[in-house]
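Input protein
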Amino acid sequence: MLRRLIASTGGIALALVLSQFPEYAQQYTQRLGGAVDELRVITEDFDRAAEAGGLDRQQALARYSVSNDDFLAGRGTSMVATFQRYEQLNTTLAEIQGAGPVQRFQSLPAYLDSDIGRRTLENYKPAVPVTVEGILYAGAGFIMGYLVLSALVRVCALPFRRGRGRSRIRVTRA
């Protein structure tokens, strides 16, 4: 009885935790999408300015790099980093939007290891899972939590079990 109560409590706790993952992933995707949109604006503006000057992006960046002005050379380096970040985040966003629930869950360590992932976690607002995905995560969390805590209680209780497996001596009256 006690084992079932403890296991059920563990199941409910893990269900609550895992049910939050779809909401975290959704909030992360929104933040990532916002970052990609802003970097797209900067990239497109740079490309338009370069085109107006009769240059492509690489030619415009080359002008920055050959400048004797440290400020301009530094801005060129900064723009290269901005374009690289835009491409990286845009690729990540496309991967996330095309991923299924299991693939997104497997990518959780990568989400948390990014600047956007940390900021998402800092500002995360829990939500009640009303999607099929949220309910599935909650169900899986309950089952895993129940099984793990049930097994843990059984293992911890082994030294305290009385008489199982020992032969008993019966005293009979004649």
